[in-house]
Amino acid sequence: MDLLIRAAQLDDAEAILAILNPIIEVGAYTVLTTPFSVEAEQEFILRFPQRGIFHVAVCRHKQEIVGFQNIEPFATYTCAFDHVGVIGTYVSLSCRRQGIGRSLFKAAFEAARCKGYEKLFAYVRADNTAALATYLSQGFRIIGTAQRHAKINGRYVDEIMIERAL
Prior knowledge:
Elements: E1 3-7, H1 13-26, H2 38-46, E2 53-59, E3 64-73, E4 84-91, H3 100-114, E5 119-125, H4 129-137, E6 141-152, E7 155-165
Helix pairs in contact: 1-2
């Protein structure tokens, strides 16, 4: 797929939610449980941290956003974690396994280094084996399991903690 990776813009909110809300509604890939409104997503984009990175992947052929990824500072209450970013990756349910994630990661790693990040960290649902495999293929390593970390619809879900040095 021929992709353009660019910074997310306020006008992208609806297209981002066209990816995110169906993933939330499936209930199998994220710990997010409530779909977001366009207004809430616009607010998220407006207030996104200055040191953050928020990319969208645009299919050039369709001129449609097919994935997005963001990196936020791990913590803002101390400078001890300034070198660590938390990463999240989302690809349209209808466009998986087409290189979108790989393209997003390539751009994110470069942008993260430019913003002073030295390490990226994420939680991945233990039952989301495809996402875990994707992160591992991008150089992340498993550092532990947070057991019974999320409780979704009365069911506990473990989360795999992963990290990657930049």
